[in-house]
Structure formats: C-alpha cells, structure tokens
Design brief:
It contains nine helices and four strands. It has a two-stranded antiparallel ribbon. Strand 1 and strand 2 form a beta hairpin. It is elongated and about 90 Å long. The termini are far apart.
Length: 267
Amino acid sequence: MATETNAPPAPARAAITERHLRTDRWWLAPTVTVAALLVFIAYATWRAFSNADYYAAPYVSPFYSPCLAENCVDMKGGPNWALFGDWWSLSPALIILVLPLGFRMTCYYYRKAYYRGFWASPPACAVAEPHQRYTGETRFPLIFQNSHRYFFYLSAVIAVILTYDTLLGFRNEDYEWGHMGLGSLLLLVNVILVWGYTLSCHSCRHIMGGRLKSFSKNPVRYRMWSLVSRLNGRHATLAWASLTSLGLSDLYVYLLATDVFNDPRLF
C-alpha cells in the first residue's frame, strides 16, 4: 500500500523568453575567429593558385614543400620530388596543401573554433544555437572528422620535410653552408611552432599513452605522454601561432622572390 508524503511540489522551470541572459561581449570571440580564418584562407588560396614566387634561394615557402609536380621551380638540394608528371599543370601547392589542411580542419581545437564561428553551433557558452537539430559527427560530411589521426601521421611527415627545408635555409644564395639570414630565423621559428602544434595534437597524446593500463610499467611512454600533455594544454595557442608563422614565412619568401627587398644576412 502506497504511503502519502508531504513533499512540496517541484518548482516549475523559469519562463525565460530570451535566447540567453549573457551581458558580456560573447560574440567577440567567434567574430574574431571568423575574421582571422577568412584572412588566412583568402591569402593561402591566392598563394596556392598563383604558382609563382615561392622560392628565393635558399628559402622555399612552406606552402610549396615538398614540390611534387614536374612543373616545380628547381630548388637546388631542396624537396623537388616530381611524383606527378607533366600532366599536372596546376599549382604544385594544390597537391601537398591537402595534408596540412586536412590535419587542421579535423583538429579538435579548430573544429571547436569554426563550429562556433561559422556554424554558430553553439556560438558561445549558454547561448542557444540557431539550428533545429544536431546529429553530431556521425553523418556525412562530419563523419570524416574521424580521419584526424591519419592526417596527423601524414602531417608529421610534412613537419619532417619542413625541418629539412629549415636546415637548407642556413646557406646563402650561392648554396654555401654556414650562413644565416633573417629568413633562416623565420623558418626556424616556423618549424618549431609547427612541431609544437603537431605534437600537442590530441591524437598524438593518445598515441603516446592513451591506451596504457599501467604507467609504472611503461616509464618511457609515460614521460612522453606527460610532455605531450603539457603541450596539449597550449594546443589552441600553438594552433594560432603556427598558422600565423606559416603565413608570414610564405609572405617573406614571396617578398624576396619579387625583389621587394633583400634578405638581411646575419653572418
């Protein structure tokens, strides 16, 4: 037999008609994100399709490395690997940029950034999104976000090649070793930031120790996982810093190739 209780009735939900109650400038962050990404996308698209002014000895733009088409400018000692024959008539940058683009597009941080900025899903915390339904990343086309780990592997190879390009940058315009210019330093900073962004990736952290059941039995992997975890906490900062350095590195090579100024030699 049921017993009666004297518990008070549950209070009804507050009838709030506004979409949110935030009074701060919550819209500022997604707006800045959209503006910054649009600027980079516009610049990178122009440079990728231009197919010119991407090599100023001994520097090569990171947008065009490695150069996999036969129509590449000859870069002495550089990454000229003509895997694509003379049938490829478009810019060689369109071949290789697919890999870092795919890596960044499927990155957990960038997904958060453009989901909020471009799709308003949601635009900010405690702000309702305008979409009527949400299916997550289980359907086309967002299901391809699950390929992030494989883009990580490929982008790590690109980072190795950019490291090689950076070493080649410690030559002069006559390809003599033992020289350093402003471009050498710029490419060095760029490759450090690219490696920082790549290694701070969530997939990299999972590979280092995500499936370990006992850290004490795997001390080396635990140290690697700990290092990547510290980097992972700065993943957003490294994402923007490396994106900026990639654009500036390409712009610097472009300015040298178009004779806007000469590369200042430090020694």
